[in-house]
Every structure is written in C-alpha cells, then in structure tokens.
Amino acid sequence: MGGSRPTLPWQSLKAKIANDPYYRFHTLEEIKLAAALGIQIDVNMAAVDDWLRLPGLSIHQARSLTQLVESGVQFYSLEDLAAALGLPVTRLQPVAPILRFCYYETDSLDRIERLDPNIATIETLQRLPGVGPVLARAIVRHRTSHGRYRSLVDMQQRLNLPGQTTAKLMHYLKF
Question: Does residue 148 carry a pLDDT above 70?
Fold first, then answer.
C-alpha cells in the first residue's frame, strides 16, 4: 500500500507561495499565509515583478513605484506608499503584513544604481563587478549588431555568459 497522501488545497497553496518568488497573491488569506511564511517585500528595493505580486496593483502603479525609488525617493511608511499611489492608506493596510520599510543611506552599498545595458557605455559597464574591457565591448557590440537586450536571460544567452557572471550582474542591470 505505497500510495502517497493526498495533498490538501491549502498545503499546495502554501508550497506555491513558499517556493515561487513571483507568485501573485489573489486574496487577503494568501497575504496572511505569505506573512506567516516570512515572505516580505522591501518597498525600497522592490522591482516591478515584486509589486505585481500584490493584489489590485496595476503594472502602471508598479512601474511608477519602481521609477520613484530609482530616482532616489524612499518610502518610510505605509502612508508614503499610499501617497505615491494616490490611494487611501486603508486600501494598503491589508497588504501591510508583507511590506517591509527599510531605510537606505544614499551612499549605502545596499543601494545599487542599476544600469541599462542597452544604453550604457563601455566605460560605464566596466565599473560593474565581473565586467572587464572584453565583456563590456562584447555587450555593446552585440547590442549594436543584434538589437536591444530584452532581459537578463536574453543577454546571457546571446553573449553565452556563464551562470556565475550572470548571477553577479543581475543585481546591477535593469532592462
């Protein structure tokens, strides 16, 4: 009798939420479950995909928040976030359990300025960890001859980058 135990719906949902960093929450129950699992979104480091995990947040709002942070705006509270979105704080309170408000000094190492490899110069690219003159020239040359990079994966495949190099670069690039 070697059958496996049936999985209860909440167990598979718990596994999805715990294991899929891009899982989009649909209900407040899922938000509560995510909070119980220790999942948090650092509002001052969140990418568009992180924001899109929140129920009811549009792609436009996610991009807007990301652009504000990239331009130097920091969110210190739920009220700041609500003001940036033009929403009442009460609309954001249900998702508050997974939002994390951290302060980063402007010159902090935790606060990384991301480069767009589609417009960066060879000199700028060489400032990135793991990018020497040969790779910087290859990035620009390939971009010029084959068009814009669509994503980190696209760039990795087109340049045949090793996983270790891609892992170093992913924190410094935006597409």
Answer: yes
Q: Distance between CA atoms of 133 and 139, rounded to whole angstroms? A: 10
Lowest mean pLDDT among 20-24, 34-38, 131-135: 20-24
pLDDT digits (tens, 9 = 90+) for 55-114: 999 999 999 999 998 878 899 999 999 999 999 999 999 999 999 998 877 655 455 678
Cα angle 28, 78, 63 (rounded to 5 degrees) comes to 80
Helix/strand/coil (H, E, C) string of 114-163?
CECCCCCCHHHHCCCCCCCHHHHHHHHHHHHHHCCCCCHHHHHHHHCCCH
H or E, element range at 14: helix 9-19
Q: Full-prediction pTM beyond 0.85?
A: no
CA 111 → CA 39, 47, 58, 120, 162, distances in Å?
Answer: 21, 13, 25, 19, 25
Number of H helices, E strands in the chain: 10, 2
Q: How far apart are CA 81 and CA 14, in angstroms?
A: 27
